[in-house]
Amino acid sequence: MNRLSSLFFFFLLYSVTTSTAQVRRSLGPPVNHPEFNEYAPSISANNKMLIFETDRAGEGKWELYYTTKNEKNKWNQPKPITNINKIGKPDDLIGGPSISYDGKTLFFFSSFEGGQGDMDIYYSTWDGNDWSEPKSVGNNINTKSYEGFPSVSADGKSLYFIRDNNTNKRAKTFCYAIWVSKKQEDDTWGVPEKLPAPINIDCEKAPRIMSDNRTLIFSSIRKEGVGGFDLYQTFQEDDGTWSSPINLEYINTEEDDQFASVSAAGDLMYYHTAGDIYTVTIPDKFRKYKLVTVDGKVIDAITKQPIATKLISKSSNPKERTINTVVDKSGTFSIIYRVGSKYDVSTSPLADYLPYRGKMDMSTAKETDNIEKNIELVPKKLVFQFQLLDKDTKAILKEPKVKVMDAETKQLLEVKVEKDIASVSVEIGKLYKFAANALGYSFFSRSFKPDTVDAFRERLKKVPLAVLKKDVVVQLQDITFETGKAELKPESGEELERLVTLLEGNQSIKVEISAHTDDVGNDDANLKLSEKRAKAVVDYLSTKGIKADRMIAKGYGETQPLVPNDSDENRAKNRRVQFKIN
After folding, report:
1. Cα(251)–Cα(261) distance, rounded to whole angstroms?
2. How many other β-carbons are positioned within 10 Å of the β-carbon of residue 137?
3. Residue from 305, 309, 323, 318 nearest 360 by CA
């Protein structure tokens, strides 16, 4: 019987099967080809890439092909995965593909020369443009026996596969047992273990672990089956045991039904039967959970460049396992969440970025949703730029002189000046002191503490400087006294030293040093206090060599407020010391 006749017979058989069967659909062209076989489909988590095994290269050669969906949600013409197919001899079999849920690693098996046995398992990685040349998964998995049809879990920590069932081989039927290997701390695959009964009982094949990392679908020949190989489903409980496999009656026929691959959402199954790839909707009763996939990138909040890290998703439901997602240098991730759950998402510690704390709320999500979300990490250090301007004309001042000091360590930071802009790298959350001056102008100083919001703000600061001319008033920063007293606190020294430098560099300048108070307390007492504070500043400058005839001390009390004395914040602004050029 030729293949077309076989297909007609199968469709006739299918039309009279029991009503428990779901409506299945052939993928049709261009995926299924009427002259060739399509085998072992593997669907990516986002449901947009399908990799399968096929003999369409001709001459009995089995290779791997892939197809992607276009803008109209239709499958494009399949293409060979050349970097894998070109390896080995012309008669080497390459098959059983299993793409990881993040779409970055492709597992498969082949008879490449130099392997451990008849068939070995290999993997290839996606570099953003193409698949790499294959590498062996290692000798803990590959042996002199037949190893094939790998399936990697969504978290990348478990690799299921089949190995020769040496204890019982049915006549004329290739029988295997299902094994699993766990990823080790050094990123190698550990010594595998054979899955227990009731999974392995006699003749099993083609395991597929679902996106919840717990549901396993596999093919098996069993007494209760309806054909040759039928599809069964089992679930791993919290204690690690496996439930009794359930016959997937909605899909099984008298044909060999095998090689199931389920979308990450868990609603659609791709599988092989009668030489082609079909899909079928999975009934709710066969689904332990409903799932949804979130795709995105981890990027630098400023440069938008990708970042390699690890994402940790912890569910508000204590019975759910924590999801650990490794994000490589491409920054891309696909995370499968349970519909109805809420997750706290964080990143592993990174040397150059602040810790990320965010949420993924799936409480109202639907499994059919196509959720895309980027995670932006804020750098620990930000570059601030300063441009000095004439306070009156707004003209840009050339050759700016800028100093930035760590307020805690008193260390000066490196400031780079290019043209008329000074740049400095500062750390978020730290307190810094900034000072700037230019020839013929007064100085300007402020304290500042970069915050996370600064990552999303303009960080080119325009700094106005006053020309050194008669009647120009400059407010001094960080000149502090004990409450109700006129003794200068030690921290006042930094700003006063800047004034000393200014006066030393401009010998012709004479200044009035004035002190001001808020309106708290007696008016006369405030006036006298301000006079004493102004004189304390003059006395300090005198000790630094500034001649007394160049300075006048003047106290104004509360008579010249900058702003109304109607709040603590405003009163603090009114308590000040400033100088005026006479």
Report:
1. 13
2. 22
3. 323
